[in-house]
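Second attempt. The first submission of EngB-type G domain-containing protein had a stray character pasted in from the spreadsheet, which I only caught after the job came back as garbage. Lesson logged: always re-copy from the clean sequence file. Corrected sequence (268 aa) follows.
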Amino acid sequence: MLKNSLLSTFLKFSSLSRVQNELFFENPYEKLKQYLEVPLLEEQFFLPDTESLVAAQELFLPNPLHRIGFITSGIGSEKFPDHDIPEVVFMGKSNAGKSSLLKAIFTNVPNLRIQTSKRPGHTKTAKFYQVGSKLCLVDMPGYGFRQPEWFENLVHEYFKRNNCVRTFLLIDGKVGFEDIDQIALDVLESYKVPHVIVMTKIDQASDSTLLKHILQLRNIKKSIVYCFSQPFMVSSHTYEGLGHLLAFIGHITGNIDVKSADIKPISS
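This time the job returned cleanly.
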């Protein structure tokens, strides 16, 4: 847990106009480690220091020289933006909490509305959100058990691009990893797309449930190649774990130099 005095010092000298809940800076793994006598994961954690967490928050704070907002949406490559900035993709089943997570990420961006369909599972386009000239977040439609042909075509068209540096596969923390998520994972593996699993809604699940689902993901990780070793855990309601996720995004897009000695080189 971060020392309050250290956190206050960094926030005092940062350019943040708003400070989110302190849980933004917390590592959700800390509260789970107390239940086990062995490491929760075999690999080392991504452990950004306080300065990196503050930089992550600043990265998603707009200013006149750092515009954050919606760019465009489309289902075919002709509708995708023509730029060379790195992109990160968010994917998940229709009720995995993707829209809520995006709203939490952009909570400090006035008037930015995360576009959603009134009928879950009926969004048909990829949506692109600009974070200045630093990176672009791509919101893929939610997937379901009987995926229509247009979704398969959209995924195929998108991953032919060279912009994507990482795809985040969202898993409902209350439910855990399901068969439909395995299909999505197989698709990412088939395209050799570097990806990360993000467990959402952790504020709505008990510690024992989260522990069970993290251990489940540890077993799944043994059979895949292109998935980052550590799942992230976040709450879109309390912001718990959000700082670590945003620091990771900032790091892999080349915008934040994470100095933690505990981090492994990111190569997959």
